[in-house]
Amino acid sequence: MEAMRAGRARAAGANVGLATPRRSRGSSARRESGRAPPLASASLRSAGPLSRERKDRLSFLSSAPRRDLPGGCSRFHSKRKDLVRCFHSRKADKACASLADEVLEEVRYMREKAKENEGVRYVLAIAGCPGSGKSTLAKRLCTKLNARASEEGRGGTAVVIPMDGYHYTRAELDRMQDPKLAHRRRGAHWTFDAEGFVRRVEEASRPRAEVDFASFDHGIGDPVPGAIQVGKHHEILVVEGLYLYLDKEPWTDLMEVFHKKCFIKCPIGLALQRVVHRKVHVLGETENGARRQVDFNDKKNAIAVWRTRKRADLLLPT
């Protein structure tokens, strides 16, 4: 018996001895290979290379999406109650300013290459999970673009096009095979008029095209047709929505239209907390009801959207 116990002890010691070097080698390799990829803008490149850990905390724009998994997102900022509300952080504002500089530079280049009276139409896409701050970032970016264009003597050159305007109406959901499920899953990709939205974006991507888009009125809970006008003078379209990079038809047709594809890297846990906050404090739902709906619907949608981030060109902070 003592010999058997000694044998088990030696085996356990051997296992411990094998596990420790593997962890050490892995962490060493991560430290050696954890150099940050080149940043997307010249104003940020001057900051120099960052370690991977520090880059995750401080980076404003990344030139290549990182393969982060959503599993640990729920613990993000768990003690910061003020972050439940969706607001524009300082690093997101810096990213927005850098992105505006890059877009305007690319538009200037397109303008120089365009033929006389041909016009320019640049399409920028911003995707992200529910509650990640797509609308906030898109509006802030559009404001910056128009402000800088006015400094150059140009009028309003940018306009925001939200995908939310192409929700199926409640009447259309009532006509579906399972109306109750359709209403509960409103926000899933199949509850949008994908064909209508994609067709409109394709039409608007042509220089000098005049196209109207629908917006979404949360007060009535339905889209408002023709609420957004794209005119000849608009050179930049900022398209924001959940499923812009979804690998399903007809969404895949949009990939050929976008000049730049951005994804807001907001942890799923934090994004869903923001959705609950919006449902309770803006839409007037009870907290328990909001949490049940988020678990049943928004969480599934967020995971589906998160998986599309690899198709983006840039990751943006929230």
TrEMBL record:
Spell out the residue ranges making up region: Disordered.
1-56
Give the compositionally biased regions (Low complexity).
1-19, 35-50
The residues covered by the Phosphoribulokinase/uridine kinase domain are 123-317
Q: Which SUPFAM superfamilies match?
A: P-loop containing nucleoside triphosphate hydrolases (SSF52540)
Keyword ATP-binding in record: no
Per UniProt, what is one Pfam family of this protein?
Answer: PRK
Q: Which UniProt keywords apply?
A: Kinase, Transferase
Q: InterPro entries given for it?
A: P-loop_NTPase (IPR027417), PRK/URK (IPR006083)
This chain's protein is named: Uridine kinase
Instruction: Record the organism.
Output: Chloropicon roscoffensis
